[in-house]
From TrEMBL:
Source organism (scientific name): Nocardioides cavernae
Protein known as: Acetyl-CoA C-acetyltransferase
Domain Thiolase N-terminal: 5-249
Classification via InterPro entries: Thiolase, Thiolase-like, Thiolase_C, Thiolase_CS, Thiolase_N
GO MF terms held by the record: acetyl-CoA C-acetyltransferase activity
Record keywords: Acyltransferase, Transferase
Pfam families: Thiolase_C, Thiolase_N
Cleaved signal peptide residues: none
EC number: 2.3.1.9
Gene3D superfamilies tied to this protein: 3.40.47.10
Family: Belongs to the thiolase-like superfamily. Thiolase family.
Source species taxonomy: Bacteria, Bacillati, Actinomycetota, Actinomycetes, Propionibacteriales
Domain Thiolase C-terminal: start-end pairs: 257-379
Active-site feature positions: 89, 336, 366
């Protein structure tokens, strides 16, 4: 079985809702990211076997296989196929998994994986035609038999997790404050420069706050009445795109590529769809078990900050030191452009591994429907 190497990974800065990227068509935003990735690596776009793209809200301007539309909008070869997938927030992380699996199986040699979401144009929980509803089967008979008539959404899930794991709300506010502080430091030290694709004049992640005030955070209204999480403790709605070039050993040699890391282990799990957001715990355990590695072997972790409670419960459940987690900030500061976030986390992780000469990195994220992916990378 051949290895699957990450040759390079790039991303746009994340734009705030209504911010600098909000006027971009998703196909153009992702297309610019594809071009930048191929130009940086020097790979021949005509030799790419497949393009796999994650996008959650596949409607409106993100409908009709936005991955294919992005590839063609970028002026890239028509004979290269593309597909758009939806594993909710982990869509582009799953895209990398599918790419690595195809390469390890020997079916393909060069695959572009990535994701896009312009939430300013297609908001969270968009339903397209209102007559069709949101699309989740909460009013279906089968669902009702399994889970009854209860409130199901990520905001309740985040609060239930905080209650079940006995999380201290003050710890949650400190985590949020630290996320912004770490992201600001990363910006000041130029840590993101190696991974950025400049689009529409946006040169930095727009959601980072340098004037964080924990008292102001405490004063924000809860997202749910009498709930635990408020806007300061949740990921920011954002716009963005990301892309990763995955190659086989043969492609690395034939194209003269220099890989950054290899995809060591990949896992995906299902978990409680009512809690929704607990999947990173079993996904991380599964990845570690399959890899033969332990928590102490991992130098850097990326756990998506969908909510502060998600990261704290995951770290508490697995005994992970937060000093190794999201060292350059997370989605509470950098934003969470749903379909792009999985490859965004991978981009941030692999470049930080190179910068610090870390050997192993692990990323994981919770996903709608009670799902989660985890990926272990090894620097080469």
């Amino acid at each position: 079985m051949t290895e699957a190497y990450i040759v390079d990974a790039v991303r746009t800065p994340t734009g705030r809702r209504g911010g600098g990227l909000s006027g971009q068509h998703p196909a153009d935003l992702l297309g610019d990211t594809f071009r930048a990735l191929l130009e940086r690596t020097g790979a021949d776009p005509g030799r790419v076997d497949d393009v796999i793209v994650g996008c959650v809200a596949q409607m409106g301007v993100q409908a009709w296989n936005v991955g294919r539309n992005a590839w063609l909008s970028a002026g890239l070869p028509e004979h290269v196929p593309a597909v758009t997938i939806d594993r909710q927030c982990g869509s582009s992380q799953q895209a990398v998994h599918f790419a690595a699996q195809a390469i390890k199986a020997g079916d393909q040699d060069l695959v572009v994986a990535g994701g896009v979401e312009v939430m300013s144009k297609v908001p969270l929980n968009s339903s397209g035609d209102p007559a069709l509803g949101f699309g989740y089967p909460f009013d279906g008979e089968g669902w009702a038999k399994q889970y009854g008539d209860q409130e199901i959404h990520q905001f309740r899930g985040g609060d239930l997790i905080a209650e079940r794991w006995g999380l201290d709300r003050e710890d949650m506010f400190r985590l949020a404050l630290d996320s912004h502080a770490r992201a600001a430091r990363a910006q000041d030290e130029g840590r993101f420069a190696s991974q950025f694709v400049e689009v529409a004049g946006v040169t930095a992640d727009e959601g980072v706050r340098r004037d964080g005030d924990i008292d102001k955070m405490r004063g924000l209204k809860p997202i749910r009445p009498d709930g635990i999480h408020n806007a300061a403790l949740a990921s920011q709605i954002a716009d963005g795109a990301s892309a990763v070039l995955v190659a086989s050993e043969r492609a690395v040699e034939e194209h003269g590529l220099t890989p950054l890391a290899r995809v060591h282990t990949a896992s995906v799990v299902g978990s409680d769809p009512v809690l929704i957001l607990t999947g990173p715990i079993p996904a991380t355990r599964k990845a570690l078990e399959r890899s033969g590695l332990g928590i102490d072997d991992i130098d850097l972790f990326e756990c998506n900050e969908a909510f502060a409670g998600v990261v704290l419960a995951w770290a508490k459940g697995l005994g992970i030191d937060l000093d190794r987690v999201n060292v350059n900030g997370g989605a509470m500061a950098l934003g969470h452009p749903l379909g792009a976030s999985g490859a965004r986390l991978m981009t941030t992780l692999v470049h930080e591994m190179v910068r610090t000469e870390a050997r192993y990195g692990l990323q994981t994220m919770c996903e709608g429907g009670g799902l989660a992916n985890a990926t272990i990378l090894e620097r080469v």
